[in-house]
From TrEMBL:
Domain Tetrapyrrole methylase: start-end pairs: 20-172
Protein name, UniProt field: SAM-dependent methyltransferase
Keyword terms of this UniProt record: Cytoplasm, Methyltransferase, rRNA processing, S-adenosyl-L-methionine, Transferase
Spans through the membrane: none
GO molecular function: methyltransferase activity
GO BP field: methylation; rRNA processing
Length: 206
């Protein structure tokens, strides 16, 4: 890490990340700017002015890869508009890791983010995703807030057809608690996993 300036989602956890990867850095030297899903350009005007003067910034993700199911694209978009160089650094994406470990179509897929909270809208989208798999063969990837994972699992096993295949990838890359399984809905109904407050990605496919 060659900069002390970062866009972060959470000050406390960002400092832990920097300390882990760059323990030589002084925490008092770090300049952290909040960048989450509620951030607007006006909120980070000071940071933008520093960047226009040539200051390098890093973009830290809370979990996964910045800008993929994660805030950050607002800043990246602004950088392109101002002709400021953007340098991507390779890192893990739970979405891609779930897909490649599912056994489903990795050539054609769609990521939908979080499903609707409203019960009726959620059921409607679940059935639409299943229909897309059946019609096109495209893998359908989505997520849920960890504390609602079990409720989503119940909805999936209730609304989807028995032969539809579902992959659940939870605690990805956790050496002790990683759970990745692909089963039909009929099989999942016989083996309910415990997903409460566990980061998980769901994939429907063939």
């Amino acid at each position: 890490m060659q900069t002390d300036y970062f866009f972060v989602e959470n000050d406390k956890t960002a400092r832990k990340v920097v300390k882990f990867f760059a323990p030589e850095k002084k925490q008092s030297d770090l300049k952290l700017f909040l960048l989450d899903k509620y951030t607007e350009n006006a909120d980070i005007k000071e940071a933008q002015e520093l960047m226009l003067k040539g200051q390098d910034f890093g973009l830290l993700s809370e979990a996964g890869l910045p800008c993929i199911a994660d805030p950050g694209n607002l800043m990246v978009k602004w950088c392109h508009e101002k002709n400021i160089r953007v340098v991507p650094i390779s890192g893990p994406s739970s979405i891609i890791l779930a897909l490649i470990s599912s056994g489903f179509n990795g050539q054609e897929f769609t990521f939908h983010g979080y499903l609707p909270i409203d019960k009726g809208e959620k059921k409607k989208q679940i059935l639409q995703l299943e229909s897309q798999v059946q019609k096109t063969g495209y893998s359908q990837i989505f997520m849920e807030t960890p504390y609602r994972n079990n409720a989503l699992f119940e909805d999936l096993t209730k609304f989807l057809s028995p032969n539809t295949k579902l992959c659940i990838a939870a605690n990805i890359n956790d050496p002790e608690h990683e759970f990745i399984k692909t089963k039909t809905i009929k099989e999942w109904q016989k083996q309910k996993p415990e997903l409460h407050k566990i980061p998980a990605v769901f994939v429907l496919g063939k």
